[in-house]
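Subject: Interface between my chains keeps coming out wrong

I've been trying for a while to get a sensible model of this assembly. When I model each chain on its own everything looks fine, but I need the whole thing in one frame so I can look at the contacts. Pasting all components below, labels as-is. Any help appreciated, I'm running out of ideas.
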Amino acid sequence: MDITLKDLLAEIRNLSYLFYGYGAIWLIVGAYVFLLSRRENKLRAEVEQLKKAVADERQSKS
Amino acid sequence: MSRLSNRLTDLLGLTAFALIIIGLYMAFLYAPTEVNMGLVYRIFFFHLASVAAGMIGIVVVAIAGAAYLRTNARAWDRVAEASAEIGVMFSTAALVSGSIWAKPIWGVWWTWDPRLTTFLILWLIYIAYLMLRASARDDARVARFSAVFGILGALDVPLVIMSSRIWRGISPVLFQETAQGFTFGLTGEMTQTLFVAIAAFILLYFYLLIQRVRLEEIRDEVVAIKRQLAAR
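Reply #2:
Try treating it as a single job with all components included. I did that and got this:
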């Protein structure tokens, strides 16, 4: 089968859409996973800080 | 959380990751190129996987919402909220990748096809659900109202699935009724690739759900300690 320049250009254009499609999916999933891990780290740090505050308060009362 | 459940969660994450790698290999190197659409059809595998994971997320919101209304247990409310967020994330990936696929195939980024429209409505319903949840996080009334809202919103799921048959849109219909009965409009290799991609994203959904529920548990712990401190 003969491949014309037009066919080749259409395939290159298709390839760029394929790249954008997969790029968009992984960008959205990756960004969500990143945000989730950042939220977890922030909350864990807050729990530690609050536990320390509770312990300090108990110590000062006793 | 016990060490066993931590290990099982890690195993779930690793399996999802391995299936994603296998699915990507199959999508690019194993499945044959489709005659009419060319290379761009390969978006389809992980686009449909995103749709499947998004829909499961929304069905889980409805199931957890119903369980919350019945038991009033905060654990079910956590599952519903977490699932809605992950469902919206996968649905967003499906909408964006579908739009990118549509441009070279249909010549437009978006068209008001019945399936696309019903899916967009579903996405908007759950964006509204998340906004409602964010408006009053620790209010039990909001949790109950959200549960009802989540159940009613999930009624759109069968409509999305059946829309192309009911209104005859231009979206591809995978299960086709022929003289030989119901057939799957894909070749063997394409079907296998699609199933691997869907399995990978469904496992990823459950892995993220577990992580997101744990996050909500930590947040509840923070709220409890703050209340404890405020009461003194």
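Reply #3:
Confirming on my end. The CA atoms of residues 51 and 157 of chain B lie 11 Å apart.
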